[in-house]
Amino acid sequence: MYKSIMHSPELLKGTLQTILLKVLKDHGKMYGYEIAQRVKELSDERLLLTEGALYPALHKLEAEGLLKTETVMMGKRVRKYYSLTSEGRSLAKERVSEFLDFIKTIGNVLQVELSG
Amino acid sequence: MYKSIMHSPELLKGTLQTILLKVLKDHGKMYGYEIAQRVKELSDERLLLTEGALYPALHKLEAEGLLKTETVMMGKRVRKYYSLTSEGRSLAKERVSEFLDFIKTIGNVLQVELSG
DNA sequence: ATTTATACATAAGTGAATTATGTATAAGAC
DNA sequence: GTCTTATACATAATTCACTTATGTATAAAT
């Protein structure tokens, strides 16, 4: 994935950036693989980020100045830690509130109750 | 659109089918333009379905046997009414529950409250 | 010794939607 | 009476996020 177990992978489109930003906001400095694990855990195995989605998305956010990186050698293995820049932090906030607007709007159209 | 005013049009991807099925389930036999108007109204102007998204989506659902059609001449103008088949009805139900699962899962990952 | 987990990366392909066009009738503005 | 807007359908070209597939390499587990 960013796929799977969720029956409608299409629904997930557009949420990846929001998830990356918010998870980094909540958990601080993290490396790619760690983010994937955290998301898997938080989603109760429902959201499995694949490398093909994850890494390009992180690179893009970095290129846009929303994330900053720090590469660390763990023994002989490379780890690239990502954290939010100040712009990243404010975008995280914005994206989450957009997501809440989005589900409220769709909820109205679908006429469903959105209670936790 | 299926776009616009909503700041993150990306989020909308994958919800169009669900919306079409559920709106048809709730409002019965409708034609394309009418569906677009209804969605606009239900979303308080936030979801504006464009023809380029709407008609191909309806055609696809029809081709898959989820919708049936009835073409009517209104004076000299054509109107194509769509309604759910029984498979369409059951898919509508499934899609809505998938959507609820989806927002619950994403809500957990984003650690947000989803109260109506 | 072999499989699985950790850890990164990128290229080719898909498919839903966007953007752009096209056709045509009816109503409303002025 | 003409011009604009609304009604009502349709489809082709393009975009771009994500999927699928592949590649490299170390470390742990069985």
Outline the structure in words.
The structure is a homodimer of 116-residue chains. Chain A has 116 residues and is an alpha+beta fold. Chain A has one domain: Winged helix-like DNA-binding domain superfamily/Winged helix DNA-binding domain (Arc Repressor Mutant, subunit A), CATH 1.10.10.10. Helices cover 56% and strands 16% of the residues of chain A. Chain A is built from 5 helices and 3 strands, in the order H-H-E-H-H-E-E-H. Chain A has helices at residues 9-12, 16-27, 32-42, 51-63, 86-110; strands at residues 30-31, 67-74, 77-84. Chain A has a 3-stranded antiparallel beta sheet with strand order 1-3-2. In chain A, strand 2 (67-74) and strand 3 form a beta hairpin. In chain A, helix 2 crosses helix 5 (86-110). The longest helix of chain A is centred in the last third of the chain and has 25 residues, at 86-110. Chain A starts with 8 loop residues before the first helix and ends in a 6-residue tail after the last helix. Residues 1-7 of chain A have low confidence and may be disordered. The A-B interface holds A 6-15, 17-19, 22-23, 26, 39, 42-44, 46-47, 94-96, 98-116 and B 6-15, 18-19, 22-23, 26, 39, 42-44, 46-47, 94-96, 98-116. The structure holds a DNA duplex (30 and 30 nucleotides).
Name a few traits of the molecule.
116 residues; alpha+beta; Arc Repressor Mutant, subunit A; three-stranded antiparallel β-sheet; 3 strands; disordered N terminus; DNA-binding
